[in-house]
């Protein structure tokens, strides 16, 4: 913190004014502690048990002060710009797995996989996503969010472009795993960054963020329709590189888009480290400084001072602010232990909630790719009267399906504010997603199959929009990255099994679709027994 900003935050007029200020701060502190247990009377969340039993009440009281300060600043320029650049993360999270599913039919035509195991590409992708989810999300609670926020797009963009030059099937799979390592870190980090600077009055925007997820699918399928649909082989007979350049063009294009997103994030947007991350690391002064920077970016001022946070401490010594970089690095490494994981399972009730959330993520992690990664293949193989469709029609229909995801994302933002809350919206959308998959097995024409898939994509976008908002909302910033990381890792671990199942299940039958639908139904019912409902509660 600069001398000027420190003076702005901590200066006091005289001894009398300072005494009055301290008295006021202690009064605010006392009121804040009393309010921690009832942040929202309308919420069904038992905030007192959720927080006081598992987490340091001093940290939670300070976090509430920060939340109040952010609410006072309101939604402004900084948050709206962050809505866009953080939205790139939602976009990439759907964009790159969709790329894999879109290039899959053409890659196996040009490069027949060994032993006929084409789903090895999806297996490589899911292993990369798993590694990325584990590394980036767990490190976010240790070294901060900014590193992952800026570098993940560079990794995915670079290897995406390189993959366009792949000389064989194995290299496609390897490069897929490498770009997926970058993709795997986007959502766990970006959701934490965005939520931690959102005013409570605008917290529903975390759900609306899923519009970027839908846009990622729409953008990818639109480009694929033009490139893969027009520059591809129609069959594996004499399918050469020169006659099958569409999937390569798609990789070059999507890799280039990811690099542009990296450039926008890195060069044109100044991301401030999360104030609640600083708070969780004991760096109160830096947390206050960031709040003042956000206020300035929004053209406002904040009356938050370091004294308002220090009144909660028995010892107001601000350790660690002026330590050399080597000491800070050593401190960060020492914090990389199991303490964050233990806090996620702090009591029986929280352990039950966390375990259930992780289980739901895991089940969806198997159900979604088991069907979604093979949608173009299913569409191509199940044309009118079950006759294969042309490549052009296949990608056109995939685009139509993608369009339905956009209104789904917007409706999700409305549903989470109803009395049924996040849980009601998530359960309904997940169950309907499974129902529509079962319905798709009854299709006997390409148009019928297209209709069922449009309904499936509509509800699945609602499902993911609510799921991606619910999970970070029920954890404080101190363990938010770790908690999301555990859920995302479980999602990716089960996702690894979807291509393995596909290898040994006949994709020309409805067996994978029945399995996927049943898993969605099961996860939708599990949502109903989640103990916490974060509607109306400001994040801590």
Question: What does the secondary structure layout of this molecule look like, with pairings?
Answer:
Blueprint: H1 3-10, H2 15-35, H3 47-52, H4 57-73, H5 77-110, H6 120-143, H7 146-163, H8 169-183, H9 186-195, H10 205-208, H11 210-227, H12 246-268, H13 275-280, H14 284-297, H15 306-310, H16 325-334, H17 339-344, H18 348-372, H19 375-381, H20 391-403, H21 405-415, H22 421-440, H23 446-473, H24 477-504, H25 511-527
Helix pairs in contact: 4-14, 5-8, 5-9, 5-11, 5-12, 6-8, 6-24, 7-8, 7-12, 9-23, 11-12, 11-20, 11-21, 11-23, 18-24, 18-25, 19-20, 20-23, 21-23, 22-23, 22-25
Membrane topology: Multi-pass membrane protein
Organism: Blastobotrys adeninivorans (Yeast)
Family: Belongs to the major facilitator superfamily.
Folded structure, characterized:
It is found in: Membrane. The protein is mostly helical. It has one domain: Up-down Bundle (Growth Hormone, Chain: A). It is globular and about 75 Å long. The two termini are 23 Å apart. The N terminus is likely disordered.
Specify the number of helices: 25
Shape: globular
Strand content: under 5%
The CATH architecture term is Up-down Bundle
Q: Biggest sheet: strands, sense, closure? A: none
Q: What's the CATH C level?
A: Mainly Alpha
Mean pLDDT over the full residue set: 80
As for the number of domains, it is 1
Extract low-pLDDT stretches.
Answer: 1-52, 315-336
Provide the CATH superfamily: MFS general substrate transporter like domains
Q: What is the terminal separation in angstroms?
A: 23 Å
Rg calculated over all Cα atoms: 24 Å
CATH topology: Growth Hormone, Chain: A
Oligomer, anyone?
single chain
Question: What is the string of SSEs from the N terminus onward?
Answer: HHHHHHHHHHHHHHHHHHHHHHHHH
- Based on secondary structure, the structural category is mainly alpha
The count of DSSP E runs of length 2 or more, i.e. the number of strands, is 0
Binned, the helix content reads over 70%
Protein name: ARAD1C19514p
Family: Belongs to the major facilitator superfamily.
Region (Disordered): 1-34
Domain Major facilitator superfamily (MFS) profile: 82-535
């Amino acid at each position: 913190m600069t001398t000027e900003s420190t003076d702005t935050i901590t200066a006091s007029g005289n001894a009398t004014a300072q005494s009055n200020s301290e008295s006021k701060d202690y009064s605010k502190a006392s009121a804040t502690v009393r309010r921690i247990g009832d942040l929202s009377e309308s919420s069904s969340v038992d905030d007192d048990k959720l927080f006081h039993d598992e987490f340091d009440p001093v940290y939670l009281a300070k976090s509430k002060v920060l939340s109040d300060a952010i609410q006072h600043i309101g939604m402004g320029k900084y948050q709206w710009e962050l809505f866009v650049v953080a939205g790139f993360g939602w976009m990439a999270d759907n964009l790159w797995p969709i790329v894999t599913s879109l290039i899959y039919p053409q890659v196996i035509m040009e490069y027949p996989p060994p032993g006929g195991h084409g789903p090895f590409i999806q297996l490589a992708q899911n292993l990369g996503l798993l590694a990325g989810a584990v590394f980036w999300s767990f490190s976010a609670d240790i070294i901060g969010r900014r590193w992952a926020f800026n570098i993940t797009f560079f990794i995915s963009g670079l290897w995406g472009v390189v993959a366009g030059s792949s000389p064989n099937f194995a290299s496609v799979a390897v490069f897929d795993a490498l770009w997926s390592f970058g993709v795997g870190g986007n959502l766990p980090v970006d959701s934490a960054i965005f939520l931690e600077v959102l005013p409570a009055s605008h917290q529903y925007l975390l759900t609306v963020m899923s519009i970027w997820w839908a846009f990622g699918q729409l953008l990818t399928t639109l480009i694929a329709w033009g490139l893969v649909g027009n520059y591809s082989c129609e069959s594996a007979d004499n399918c050469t590189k020169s006659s099958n350049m569409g999937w390569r063009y798609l990789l070059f294009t999507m890799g280039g888009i990811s690099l542009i997103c990296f450039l926008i994030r890195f060069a044109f947007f100044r991301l401030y480290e999360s104030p609640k991350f600083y708070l969780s690391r004991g760096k109160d002064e830096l947390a206050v400084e960031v709040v003042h920077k956000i206020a300035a970016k929004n053209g406002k001022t904040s009356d938050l001072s370091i004294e308002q946070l220090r009144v909660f401490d028995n010892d107001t010594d601000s350790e660690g602010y002026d330590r050399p970089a080597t000491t800070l690095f050593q401190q960060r490494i020492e914090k990389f232990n199991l303490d964050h994981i233990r806090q996620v399972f702090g009591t029986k009730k929280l352990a039950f909630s966390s375990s259930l959330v992780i289980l739901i993520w895991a089940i969806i992690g198997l159900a979604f790719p088991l069907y979604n990664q093979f949608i173009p293949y299913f569409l191509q193989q199940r044309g009118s009267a079950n006759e294969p469709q042309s490549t052009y029609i296949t990608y056109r229909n995939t685009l139509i399906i993608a369009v339905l995801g956009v209104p789904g994302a917007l409706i999700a933002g409305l549903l989470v504010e109803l009395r049924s809350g996040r849980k009601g919206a998530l359960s309904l959308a997940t169950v309907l997603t499974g129902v529509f998959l079962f319905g798709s097995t009854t299709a006997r024409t390409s148009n019928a199959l297209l209709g069922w898939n449009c309904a499936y994509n509509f509800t699945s976008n609602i499902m993911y929009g609510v799921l991606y908002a619910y999970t970070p909302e029920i954890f404080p910033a101190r363990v938010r990255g770790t908690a999301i990381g555990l859920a995302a890792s479980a999602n990716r671990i089960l996702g690894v099994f979807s291509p393995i199942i596909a290898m040994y299940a006949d994709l020309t039958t409805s067996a994978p679709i029945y399995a996927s639908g049943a898993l969605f139904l099961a996860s939708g019912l599990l949502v109903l027994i989640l103990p916490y409902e974060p509607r109306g509660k400001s994040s801590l």
